[in-house]
Amino acid sequence: MVQDLSDKANLLIQALPYIQKFNKETIVIKYGGNAMVHPLLKDAVIKDIVLLSLVGINIVVVHGGGPDINDMLAKIQKESRFIDGLRYTDQETMDIVQQVLCGKVNKNLVSLINRVGGKAVGLCGMDGGMICGVQLKKQDKDYGLVGEIVNINPEVVNDTLDKGYIPVISSVAQGIDGNSVYNINADTAAAKLSVALGAIKLILLTDVRGIMNNVDDNDSLISQITLEGIPLLKERNIISGGMIPKVDCCVEALNGGVERTHIIDGRIAHSILIELLSDEGIGTMITKG
Amino acid sequence: MVQDLSDKANLLIQALPYIQKFNKETIVIKYGGNAMVHPLLKDAVIKDIVLLSLVGINIVVVHGGGPDINDMLAKIQKESRFIDGLRYTDQETMDIVQQVLCGKVNKNLVSLINRVGGKAVGLCGMDGGMICGVQLKKQDKDYGLVGEIVNINPEVVNDTLDKGYIPVISSVAQGIDGNSVYNINADTAAAKLSVALGAIKLILLTDVRGIMNNVDDNDSLISQITLEGIPLLKERNIISGGMIPKVDCCVEALNGGVERTHIIDGRIAHSILIELLSDEGIGTMITKG
Amino acid sequence: MVQDLSDKANLLIQALPYIQKFNKETIVIKYGGNAMVHPLLKDAVIKDIVLLSLVGINIVVVHGGGPDINDMLAKIQKESRFIDGLRYTDQETMDIVQQVLCGKVNKNLVSLINRVGGKAVGLCGMDGGMICGVQLKKQDKDYGLVGEIVNINPEVVNDTLDKGYIPVISSVAQGIDGNSVYNINADTAAAKLSVALGAIKLILLTDVRGIMNNVDDNDSLISQITLEGIPLLKERNIISGGMIPKVDCCVEALNGGVERTHIIDGRIAHSILIELLSDEGIGTMITKG
Amino acid sequence: MVQDLSDKANLLIQALPYIQKFNKETIVIKYGGNAMVHPLLKDAVIKDIVLLSLVGINIVVVHGGGPDINDMLAKIQKESRFIDGLRYTDQETMDIVQQVLCGKVNKNLVSLINRVGGKAVGLCGMDGGMICGVQLKKQDKDYGLVGEIVNINPEVVNDTLDKGYIPVISSVAQGIDGNSVYNINADTAAAKLSVALGAIKLILLTDVRGIMNNVDDNDSLISQITLEGIPLLKERNIISGGMIPKVDCCVEALNGGVERTHIIDGRIAHSILIELLSDEGIGTMITKG
Amino acid sequence: MVQDLSDKANLLIQALPYIQKFNKETIVIKYGGNAMVHPLLKDAVIKDIVLLSLVGINIVVVHGGGPDINDMLAKIQKESRFIDGLRYTDQETMDIVQQVLCGKVNKNLVSLINRVGGKAVGLCGMDGGMICGVQLKKQDKDYGLVGEIVNINPEVVNDTLDKGYIPVISSVAQGIDGNSVYNINADTAAAKLSVALGAIKLILLTDVRGIMNNVDDNDSLISQITLEGIPLLKERNIISGGMIPKVDCCVEALNGGVERTHIIDGRIAHSILIELLSDEGIGTMITKG
Amino acid sequence: MVQDLSDKANLLIQALPYIQKFNKETIVIKYGGNAMVHPLLKDAVIKDIVLLSLVGINIVVVHGGGPDINDMLAKIQKESRFIDGLRYTDQETMDIVQQVLCGKVNKNLVSLINRVGGKAVGLCGMDGGMICGVQLKKQDKDYGLVGEIVNINPEVVNDTLDKGYIPVISSVAQGIDGNSVYNINADTAAAKLSVALGAIKLILLTDVRGIMNNVDDNDSLISQITLEGIPLLKERNIISGGMIPKVDCCVEALNGGVERTHIIDGRIAHSILIELLSDEGIGTMITKG
Question: Which residues pair with B174 in a beta bridge?
């Protein structure tokens, strides 16, 4: 038994160089998908966040909340129209999006973090004027209150980190072109926040293993690519579909000074911890070069 | 015209002794009722808050949100059952309460404060574990997820005040008797927060003029009473109905060390400013003695 | 009456954007003339200063003290000789200037500010070595102990602002060309201090309405001019006589980085407040361009 | 020569234990008499103050200014009436007292300290509301604007010490029984300030050697007495005349917590330094017991 | 493989509640015996210390150094005389003790900690006057320069912790009864330091499993005892021989306010980590009751 | 006697301008030679250090320890081999060097400083990773563990100065090319530390008067030279032998930004104080130009 305990301790010790590397650094985690729905996975993510915060890493959580929004829209029997894959967001929909994200998903995450001994504060783009947006305009199409970010003011995030809290952030923006609130993409918000905060790492939790040469073959995972390798992978449709915007967020973060970005599988318990505190990355890491 | 300008300046100067009196002190404002519904009144309250914050007073806003909750419940065709005047709160109702309060009403207030140049952060009882509650038990009756406060941890409020923000707080509590979130009374939350924060003043915005000898006679407003005067006024039904719990909140605050409490009329534009920065109190002030 | 109170509150609210604009900024006020002699005007100035300080503006007061100096010289039956409009200042005169400015006028202002609840400290150019001067030399003429400023060391002013005091400053300089103390022009001292302190505003209180097209016509006040407009106004004698050195002080401040300078009428009660906290400037504002 | 230099260095080293003892402590020095008039003695005092400040002792200087006041009163041909040894102080006299003390004597001291490389700020009882007084009432006699101290607010002194300045303080008080300024005894002010500041030492510079058994015999100096020895010395007229109020100030300081008080001879160059930095006290030290 | 990684991560997560419990607390570790001699064990201890320091625990290391001292004494062919089990320490021996402990063992530990990325500073009882001792006197026997501690001044330890260092401390005391340096027992020094520092835990690394009912039976380890259980265990010789002074050190620490003390087996790799970050204590824990 | 005391005080006053000049500056003193051996000289140096520290100068002491090392090597009958004047340092020798320097000489200095009321901490190149070295390589000769400095990390020195300690530093380096510790030249360490700390002065205590035109003629001391004068003095053999590396250290310090360097005579009591606090430099000062 003693040997067994020593082995366990040895595992902890293996995390030492990683903890040292990230100590006092900021890491932005985009939290979404299965890891947000499945209770056991959720519990694992929350504990990962609290542990990482406790070993001296500034953890910033950005979340979406698709399923809860859909549930609520269904409850009020509101049907959504989609344009180019984007939900047309009228005022009634926006109200639902805002209250579900900022009031339910966000505060429930805060509550979960508190319950395992962390210290979290739930924020959204309106708090301290953090995320400023305007209406999205693409080829003169009208998506309603879908917005794009024009400015990030990270002061309120830094203030809460400074006071020892884990900021949990809903991806909703305060409009600067009127009194509106805008629905913004959470991946994009996470990427832009990671730049504004001078983070060293951006982690996108997804429902896939990462970028794969062959999506049907788990062994075909590409562990690491650089910026310059991306165009070819897009050309060959290895980066395709929903992976394209995620990779684009990573590119934006890297160009903004973030050192490393990771697309990892939220369906694996403790995937964040594994990615951060071991050599065995389990997703795809994208670096500058 | 010059005389006119001097007269205006003189009015500003009359506020000087009040600003001096409250400088660096904390004042808790329970915001609700008409002042939260009517756009012009809302605008006046927001500006009052920003101005008071700017002249060096620590303003803490606690809000309820009845009408918005009702609207949302109506939208999902949820009927509420009332027990002793309290809404029986099942899990579905509680979800609506939480998301409307913390996600809609709260963040909209934050946004409004930002838009007139203030610096606000929207919090709820879960953030930083601020408000801890248990299920309300009165004579073994079951009100569902209606809660009562067992502990206030004001750290997160002080941290945000310390960093120069106006904390705006939704009256929802984190359960310590399970994983629940509880619906709590906003007046009570404001009273207990005013004690925990060492506030000098608690202001309850209502839809009446204050405590009145005769509710039909505006001139019968009682401007000031002390703790010891309250029992008689209750006996005589001058304090009655919905006024009773409000007065009880004031009593709790006063017994906890708050210097003065005010029940004022939110239907009058700038009633907060008038009450704070002039001799002409326009509501009822309750003091210890 | 309630409407009346709301109107008053509205007036306060109108000051909000101005308070926001000047919050945490430094404003240097040159205080002199009638506003320093007439008790009611004096009282208004003092209250303006305390109010502005309380709403978060760093107020620095620089004062002269002509009439009190004259009274004291008369008392000791000392006659003054004037050269080019400057009082020839022998050692005995200088002693009187110093003691009246630093000991009487200065400390009485401090006392008045304290009495309305402000927190002032009375300083002069010698304190902390703040204002360093040499003997004025113009075309080899000898003006005795009239000095000109060669260096401003703003440390002691910043230290007192930092500790929350309103510094009140007598325009007397410590000589660096010997053991002398020099009599210096208060307008110039205010202008140079505004530059050294990185002030955003310099306000000169005078006994005229401002720069006027026709001094006999109150309606001919020029509300705003820029640096480039000044030469023409001098040429046309619209800026002439005692107004020339005042305008030159403004020019020096503007060239040193001060954003706006104001020549306002100290004979109007609360002219400082009116100028700062309303759109209706009542004097002449000179800006860079 | 080398031996000579080593001897000199040795002298410096002998000051070491005294510097260690007083490091970071506060010492109040009442400066007056000959040491304030004679240029060489003045120079010695100034240098003592700067040196002591530099070796880490918080030096607070309180000064009177009798001769300069008399000169100025003579200049305006004002005759003084004395009641029980106290100058009856009418408003005109008070103005002279204030301006000479706060404007001339005080600021000249500040200037002298600056010139030898110290960092001084000149204050009086009005600055920051430091010394609050009322009209002196003794057996219903009227002494005009002679005041007595009712309260010391040491905040402004601590603030200036905190920022590294040597505060130089004129003994003039702000009246709390009206708008008056009061002339107060400098010894008393020094004693009360030493208590309010938590000083470990009060030093009164005088024009005598100390308390002497026989005033005509320099060798009869009493080097040290305790509180309980004082009544007998008074009885025997060894403490008599002008020495009585000085000893009473020491008693007040000692009873207020000051550790040691010293009555030393300002006519001896560097008497402060000798008293503080050597075993050979050259005046009379009064201790608690 | 993914499951394997998740299992590893799960192990890290199991440490979470312990890390939370000790966060920002101080733990004193007496380091000695085999764990200081065997390279692999030494490496494990060093990594444990760095990891614990990194997760926010204030680690203070106190060490002895018997074997190295013996080696050096052997080298200079110095024979030691023992009195009651204590080495009689003459001046020559003391010099060796001091230089081996403070110069070799201490600085080598510091170097090892640095090499795995920690930040250590090597101190001894003389640094900052931390440990003050006198000559040990027991029944008038003379043990030479063996000392006992009379006072701990923890300032220098707190200062280094405050600046983020791991203080490594040699158990040598500065004599206050002359110019001597004294050889002091490292267990005692650790116990007294844990009290002076307000530590929550004292850990003694030994070469045995802990307190055992039967020293020949590994399964007879007593995992936990309280203060009141100790006399009986001594009576029964279960606590006997070299274990007695170790248990006495624990008693002293507990009586001084330390919460828990641990006697653990330094021959087990990572025994510190196992004891601190898991439920499975592997030594004997002594608590107050 | 009074005159005598005044004269003494005057001597203290003469130190004033020097104390002012060095206040809050850092001075590195290389301590070695006779001043480290002779008890009276040692006592004088220690008191000089404590006094200078007390008057607000940041004193950093770097020491060697030749005689003690030789004594210890003799005791273990270890003979040293010298190559080009450098002691070939095998592992056994290095162990002795380290333990004598860091454990004996260093901590004894710390103890002496404490005993006269200073506050010292003993450090070496390993503490906080302060001095990083590699094996010395000169023309492929092997000197064993003689090292040269590749990097100074002054953080731990600044941290101890910041907390009010006098850091006393042994010239031993942590190897970055393996696990070794290296023996490094103390003069060089002092010079490189003076640069890394931004010191204004480097003082090398030696056993000669300074640089002398004729070593047999005490009156031929060269009081001051500049960088450009050095080549000629070397050419003329006026700078020769052991003086060459000392002068080279001064050159390195001057080129690194140190203002003045001094080679002074440690055989003269208080030579440090004399050099710093008087005009009469008693050694050779080397300045940039």
Answer: B132, B181
